[in-house]
Amino acid sequence: MLIYDGDCAFCRRWVERIRRWDPGHGIDTVPFQDTARVASFRIPQTDLHAAMHLVLPDGRVFAGAEAAPEILRLLPGKHWLAWGFRVPGVLWIATRVYRWIAKRRHRLSCGSGVCPRGE
């Protein structure tokens, strides 16, 4: 289960891309605003607001940049890209880039520069 910010156009675009890359629907997606569906995972709302979360069937949870290689492993034809995260320093850089984007995601969604949420 991939939990993401359904109010974020930037996030929705990436989720749509993941869905296109996943024709077998191996990754279920749900916005964290669907509180009934995400409640069973017991992830604090503050954490859900801060980053995407991937919950694997075995219960392991990956958040933010740490979820990226796991998502790639689950996508047909993309699993080979996950190896790049094993290169020393790549996850460290990816984490910082993810945090930078996550803090600005609503502004990055605005083509006109005026965000509906005023961020």
Lay out the secondary structure.
Blueprint: E1 2-4, H1 9-21, E2 29-31, H2 35-38, H3 45-50, E3 53-55, E4 61-63, H4 67-74, H5 90-108
Parallel strand pairs: 1-2
Antiparallel strand pairs: 1-3, 3-4
Descriptive account of the structure:
- With 119 residues, the chain is an alpha+beta fold.
- It has one domain (2-108).
- Helices cover 42% and strands 10% of the residues.
- It contains five helices and four strands; from the N terminus they run E-H-E-H-H-E-E-H-H.
- Strands 2-1-3-4 form a four-stranded mixed sheet.
- Helix 1 (9-21) links the parallel strand 1 (2-4) and strand 2 (29-31).
- The radius of gyration is 14 Å and the shape is globular.
- It starts with a strand and ends in an 11-residue tail after the last helix.
Terminal residue distance:
28 Å
Shape: globular
Helix count equals: 5
Per DSSP, what share of the residues sits in E-state strands of 2 or more residues?
5-15%
Helix/sheet category:
alpha+beta
Number of structurally distinct domains:
1
Low-confidence blocks of residues: none
Report the strand count: 4
Biggest sheet: strand arrangement = 2-1-3-4
Oligomerization status of the protein chains: single chain
C-alpha Rg, in Å? 14 Å
How are helices and strands ordered from N to C? EHEHHEEHH
* Largest pleated sheet: 4 strands, mixed
